[in-house]
């Protein structure tokens, strides 16, 4: 029987809070530091591993975290989720995004059908469609092949698919599977669509309109923007556009689209990269086989999230360490620092995934909680960040826990040897050096050149960023966020906090305002 | 006589800390909210204005902030800076980036010459060079015009110029002044350079190598990467590359470059967008006239930063309110939220500018301070962020102060009318709505749909993002960061916190490691 409890009611949490703090500079020094690096590592799927040697934990803290996992029933709650219980209580919905990549538990029946079959069926439809586009069986009105795919969507319909596309673009180019260039239009700022439309070949572009409800104002506005541009170019919009939406949306059966691909209410926007929201654009860009490999990687990582042993479950362990840092050590933010240019927008995706899921102050029963929940998430790729905001991370007055990601090999296979090392070696040397600099610091007689250390980090290490390892990486963070939501007793799958702004914006546009809102509207000439 | 004092020694700071907190939801309600919006606004240069009605301040707090500005001698310290005193005490350097855009005080003589003349002279050289490239007087070996400019640099040689280019690309396209496309290579990850090189026309590309010292390892590595690619394409690298560096650097007189443009040690990387670091690439991309307009805007804004009245000095006021939020109200982060897709990388630039300048825990005398200094800075353009991390901003357990930026008109001049409003109107309606939602919140009988409000924000409003207003915006934030550094008694112009990682990375590459650093190196196959 599952019990939903606040974090601060748990005996294991009280025990955890009372434990002696780990002296990280000391723990990471000398040979015992080397031992930690070898010991504090958990295998993930697809050759990845989660190394937490530079986190401020020890065997005692890990034991308390393990008790917390058991007392808060974290893997049982995950099992309830993948077996189809109504976990999104706020919106009274199941939470089924893991089903888009494989079956983790029993068959989930909803809306009168098997949901795994439904998601796999839509992926198969998208694959068949992409294959026809690539084969020239679906073409523009002149019978010419489409060369560019443009996704129109916002939030989860944009950030995740965009981050995944960028993560694999170079890999696909190097491996001869870049079938179509992909571009993205998201912002209601008309300059966003204008900038994309002015730099693509409209006649050979296929647009993917993504809106679950079919009513997202930004997305419908950008659709009209694009349709106007197509018409002005003498093209028929209905021959250049497909829709990704729910079966009940106004877009579902419209003759305005070449085809429609479906998702449903059980997949939240920020968790939708593995559904047709990501599947259509990624299958068109890279081919359906590449998208299938991405799903396989995610599913393989999902399987590790079922483990009850926290040392065999990297997402669970990562989540627990994060809760320890947030609630016991009191750190307000986490930086995500991938040492891979391909992951340039991965931090932005994680920012949404994490902050929209767990940036909440009421628990699943609508009661205010008395402890901090989701942290601020930000980040940029290294080594760029090293020449930028790392100053604060090293010597600022606040401690920011860090999540590094690194790969032994690059994607494009081009490299250069300078001063006795390749660029890839320099990249890897930098991430190793940073972990140690943050953990151990260095004293100097000039206090301005002195580093306190004690700044905790973890690293996910892989051989190469491929479709499989990208899928595993994505699933790791999705599951981490889910487990943290369970720890904090939140509903991580709704987003009521974005509603008020929408309501007020509509009032501004209807000129139904007064007071300060009217004053701002006047200032902005609305 | 200037006295450099810690913030917590100031009588005005103690007074400020003791003042009654402002009830923001109440202050912004009804007609008094409308009055605040009209009253709490400070003009900036180039038609911009800084509106702080939705900040948690009142006349009493403002009076205390004004006292703090006087007691901490903030504008006197700025005057010392622009008159050429050695403000960067750590590195024993003057701080002269404002001189790149105009003369604010007396002539500054250093290294045996007038520094304003030196900077202006280099800009004139860059302008003449760009004009020759545009006119086809400087061409590739086949006598064909260069069409693309690629900047190679990292940190301040990348983020600022890249953000400025993206900010004006659409404007320039709409105004017929986009002379060359610009691209950027920064990361030592070889996939970064590979991805740029595979998608440009090498034969018609001109590279701008930017390194003040001429020894930045990432940049020299990428230079070699590019030279290899040029040679492999049968092209002579020396005919495709210029350098931006200091006169004493090994790059300065090399025959490897078509030309060299100079900066000096008195302009820090993160403050170098207005020097030749930004000037060469932006003059090539948009024409020198556009770059000159950008400088004019920055200089006009610098002039407002000389005002001693905090209600006439927007950068000073913004800085003081930020210190109040950080040190008195205790907020650890600030989000920068431009409602303009053109400013997509502006938050990343401000992240470096702010966090690298003020992410420090020792004062200018090398003594530890007992108060928080620079906050975490992050952000993404609205409306995208609304569909992402705004959930936490509205309903999370921590309060994050916000800095909005918005413009009444878009850049490209393309728009569409949907449901009775244009995209630009929707964009502006959203920012107005968000400010009010954050400030006032909304109660609801369902606590999950309830918004506490009390989340402070400011907005910079302009007519349009142009070269002038972009320059003013940049100068505003540079000067804000400088004033905050003065408040906290920091040296905002060095960056010792980035050194340790560099040293350790060199040791890794030399295989001069042991303990945990060796263990990580092994894991990463270095």
Question: What this model shows, in words?
Answer:
The structure is a homodimer of 526-residue chains. The first copy, chain A, is α/β, with parallel strands linked by helices and 526 residues long. The first copy, chain A, has three domains: 288 residues, 3-Layer(aba) Sandwich (Rossmann fold); 182 residues, Glucose-6-phosphate isomerase like protein, domain 1 (Rossmann fold, 3-Layer(aba) Sandwich); 32 residues, no CATH class. Chain A contains 18 helices and 15 strands. In chain A, the strands form four sheets. A six-stranded mixed β-sheet of chain A has the order 1-2-15-12-10-11, with helices on both faces. Chain A has a five-stranded parallel β-sheet with strand order 6-5-7-8-9, with helices on both faces. The first copy, chain A, has a two-stranded antiparallel sheet with strand order 3-4. In chain A, strand 7, helix 9 and strand 8 form a beta-alpha-beta unit. In chain A, helix 5 crosses helix 16, helix 8 packs parallel to helix 9 and helix 11 packs across helix 16. Chain A is globular and about 70 Å long. The termini of chain A are far apart. The model of chain A has no long low-confidence stretch (mean pLDDT 97). Chains A and B meet through helix 3, helix 7, helix 8, helix 9 and helix 13 of A and helix 3, helix 7, helix 8, helix 9 and helix 13 of B.
* Biggest sheet layout of chain A: 6 strands, mixed
Number of strands of chain A: 15
Number of domains of chain A: 3
Distance between the termini of chain A: 54 Å
CATH topology of the largest domain in chain A: Rossmann fold
* Tally of individual helices of chain A: 18
The class by helix and strand makeup of chain A works out as alpha/beta
CATH architecture of the largest domain in chain A: 3-Layer(aba) Sandwich
Give the largest interface pair and sizes: A-B, 159 and 158 residues
Which parts of chain A are unreliable, with pLDDT below 50 for 5 consecutive residues or more?
none
Backbone CA Rg of chain A: 24 Å
Going by CATH, what is the homologous superfamily of the largest domain in chain A?
A: Glucose-6-phosphate isomerase like protein, domain 1
Average residue-wise pLDDT of chain A: 97
DSSP strand content of chain A = 5-15%
Overall geometry of chain A comes to: globular
Task: State the share of residues found in helices of chain A, binned by percent.
Answer: 40-55%
């Amino acid at each position: 029987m599952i019990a939903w409890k606040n974090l601060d009611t748990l005996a294991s949490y009280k025990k955890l809070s009372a434990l002696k703090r780990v002296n990280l500079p000391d723990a990471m020094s000398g040979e015992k530091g080397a031992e930690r690096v070898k010991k504090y590592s958990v295998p993930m799927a697809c050759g990845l591993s989660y190394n937490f040697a530079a986190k401020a934990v020890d065997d005692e803290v890990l034991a308390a975290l393990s008790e917390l996992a058991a007392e808060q029933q974290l893997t049982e709650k995950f099992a309830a989720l993948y077996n189809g219980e109504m976990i999104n209580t706020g919106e009274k919905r199941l939470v089924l995004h893991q089903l888009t990549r494989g079956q983790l538990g029993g068959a989930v029946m909803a809306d009168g059908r098997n949901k795994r079959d439904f998601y796999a069926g839509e992926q198969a439809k998208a694959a068949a469609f992409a294959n026809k586009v690539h084969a020239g069986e679906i073409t523009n009105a002149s019978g010419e092949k489409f060369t560019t795919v443009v996704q129109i969507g916002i939030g989860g319909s944009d950030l995740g698919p965009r981050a995944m596309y960028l993560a694999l673009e170079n890999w696909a180019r190097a491996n001869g599977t870049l079938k179509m260039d992909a571009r993205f239009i998201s912002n209601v700022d008309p300059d966003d669509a204008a900038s994309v439309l002015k730099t693509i070949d409209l006649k050979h572009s296929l647009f993917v309109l993504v809106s679950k409800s079919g009513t997202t104002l930004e997305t419908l506005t950008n659709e009209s923007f694009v349709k106007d541009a197509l018409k002005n170019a003498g093209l028929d919009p209905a021959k250049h556009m497909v829709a990704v939406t729910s079966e009940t949306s106004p877009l579902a059966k419209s003759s305005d689209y070449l085809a429609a691909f479906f998702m449903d209410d059980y997949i939240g926007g920020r968790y939708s990269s593995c559904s047709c929201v990501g599947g259509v654009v990624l299958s068109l860009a890279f081919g359906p086989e590449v998208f299938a490999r991405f799903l396989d990687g995610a599913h393989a990582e999902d399987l590790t999230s079922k483990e009850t042993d926290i040392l065999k479950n990297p997402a669970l362990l990562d989540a627990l360490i994060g809760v320890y840092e947030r609630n016991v050590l009191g750190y307000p933010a986490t930086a995500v620092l991938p040492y891979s240019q391909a992951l340039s927008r991965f931090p932005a995706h994680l920012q949404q995934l994490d902050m929209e899921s767990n940036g909440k102050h009421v628990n699943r029963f609508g009661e205010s909680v008395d402890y901090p929940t989701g942290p601020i998430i930000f980040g940029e790729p290294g080594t760029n960040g090293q020449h930028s905001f790392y100053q604060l991370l090293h010597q600022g007055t606040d401690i920011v826990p860090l999540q590094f990601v690194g790969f032994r090999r690059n994607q494009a296979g081009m490299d250069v040897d300078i001063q006795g090392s390749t660029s890839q070696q320099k990249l890897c040397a930098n991430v190793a050096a940073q972990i140690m600099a943050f953990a151990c610091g260095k004293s100097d007689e000039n206090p301005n050149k002195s580093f306190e250390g004690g700044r905790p980090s973890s690293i996910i290490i892989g051989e190469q960023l491929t479709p499989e390892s990208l899928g595993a990486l994505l699933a790791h963070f999705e599951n981490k966020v889910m487990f943290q939501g369970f720890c904090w007793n939140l509903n991580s799958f709704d987003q009521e906090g974005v509603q008020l702004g929408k309501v007020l914006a509509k009032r501004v546009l209807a000129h139904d305002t007064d007071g300060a809102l009217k004053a701002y509207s006047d200032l902005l000439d609305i």
